[in-house]
Specification:
The structure is a single chain. The protein has 445 residues and is an all-alpha fold. It is 76% helix and 0% strand. The chain is built from 19 helices and no strands. It is globular, with a radius of gyration of 21 Å.
Length: 445
């Protein structure tokens, strides 16, 4: 039996696409993309976003998938198989996934608590009181993480792929139902105008940098997820098609989220630029003010959020345990127990960052609480640097021809886009990723 069969393999092309889309479609798509688009020139921001999807998102994703399939290994093993000196690049990605999962699981726990409260009590919890409590955020962090662990326990095909086949179509269907309700509310037109009207006066260099950063983080680049998922692809998989379809689904979901949220928010006179509190404070106020169907819409909305969150968490968890399975030769069960337990413990300080340790902001955290410091480490340092080093390695150290041959399956499939892809990996993507880092450090504020 081949090593791929021992590790696992996607049962179908659609299974991979839905799982990869589930990884990309996360909480950031739901709350962040719509208001970024609205406050940065409307359709002008969307056009910039689409351009960056094409000239950075798709090519970098394609390179990561090719690295994974070429080595049939986790991010660390994939880079080591090409050049042992490149091993730290893969390690940086696995570390980023591990840290992100620890605090992402906390936020996923918030979503679970809201879903349960709306389902059984009909009202949302008080966000400030809930997040400031000692035990409840930790409990829900554990519940959400356990959900992701159970899905991963089933393996690649029977676990991740099966869950994605159920959750992703359901997510899109529920979003469409919410959109129908949202755009029929009185005053919803203001939300649509806020999102789509071309306002050149609000489109600036900062808007362009925001679009670039949103592409990078939305597609889960620079953390080894697409390397991991690519390692489970068969030789007959056409990587170029997948690198087009997955970002397209991600963008479609972000637009649907905007159509679901912004008309609703404007219809009730709320602030559309509230950030994460838009989901946990503003929208619950809107749902409670709806004359009819508010509770049902709230339940459907938090189901969408829960599915988006857990499919992203599963990809983060799989990225980490693929390392322990491949390199440490642990079983999947042992990997999930030990990695899951460690992630849970690391997530506890993030869960308490609005409560017991809210005032603990050491100098080394730059005045941030634990959750914000963890976000800063991954978003500003590990992910952008990891993505940049990957492009430099593929484009310059190794040379693009080797991964180009892998993408073409060594001549089995045509790769007519190779000259453009190679140029982007060598010149365009590295420059754009440097810009992402500068943006994250506030250079363009």
């Amino acid at each position: 039996m081949s090593s791929k069969k021992n590790r696992g393999e996607w049962g179908s092309s659609m299974g991979f696409i839905l799982a990869a889309a589930g990884s990309a479609i996360g909480l950031g798509n739901i709350w962040k993309f719509p208001y970024l688009m609205g406050r940065n020139g409307g359709v002008w921001f969307l056009l910039a976003y689409l351009v960056f999807i094409v000239i950075m998102g798709m090519p970098v994703m394609l390179g990561e998938m090719a690295l994974g399939r070429a080595a049939n290994k986790n991010p660390v093993g994939a880079f080591a198989a090409q050049n042992r000196w490149a091993t730290p690049i893969g390690a940086m990605g696995v570390l980023a996934a591990f840290i992100i999962l620890s605090y992402y699981s906390v936020i996923g726990g918030w979503v679970m608590r809201y879903l349960v409260d709306y389902t059984f009590q009909g009202v949302a919890p008080d966000f400030g009181e809930f997040t400031a409590s000692a035990g409840s955020p930790i409990l829900w962090h554990g519940v959400f993480l356990l959900w992701a662990v159970v899905i991963c326990l089933g393996g690649v095909s029977a676990g991740i792929e099966r869950a994605s086949r159920l959750m992703m179509p359901t997510l899109f269907l529920l979003l469409l139902l919410i959109v129908i309700r949202a755009v029929t509310l009185p005053g919803a037109g203001e939300g649509l105008r806020f999102m789509f009207d071309p306002r050149a006066s609000q489109f600036s260099l900062k808007s362009i940098s925001a679009a670039l950063g949103q592409v990078f983080f939305s597609l889960s680049l620079g953390m080894g997820i697409m390397i991991t998922y690519g390692s489970y692809l068969g030789r007959n998989a056409r990587l170029v098609r997948k690198a087009v379809i997955v970002p397209s689904l991600d963008t479609f979901c972000a637009l649907l989220a905007g159509l679901a949220i912004l008309p609703t928010v404007f219809a009730f006179g709320k602030d559309p630029t509230a950030g994460p509190s838009l989901v946990f404070v503003t929208l619950p106020d809107v749902f409670s003010a709806m004359p009819a169907g508010g509770r049902l819409i709230a339940i459907l909305f938090f189901i969408v959020l829960a599915f988006a969150a857990v499919t992203s968490a599963v990809s983060l968890l799989e990225c980490v345990i693929s390392y322990t399975i491949d390199e440490l030769h642990w079983s999947r069960l042992l990997s999930l127990v030990l990695v899951g337990g460690t992630v849970f413990l690391l997530g506890i300080p993030s869960a308490l960052s609005s409560g017991l340790i809210a005032e603990w902001k050491p100098i080394m955290f730059g005045g941030r609480n634990f959750l914000d410091a963890a976000c800063f480490l991954t978003d500003n340092i590990l992910m952008p640097i990891g993505g940049l080093l990957m492009c430099i390695f593929v484009g310059w150290v190794q040379g693009p021809s080797k991964m180009g041959a892998e993408i073409a399956n060594h001549g089995a499939w045509p790769f007519r886009q190779y000259p453009a892809w190679a140029f982007i990996m060598r010149y365009i993507a590295p420059v754009l990723l440097i810009v992402v880092m500068l943006v994250q450090f506030g250079v363009f504020e």
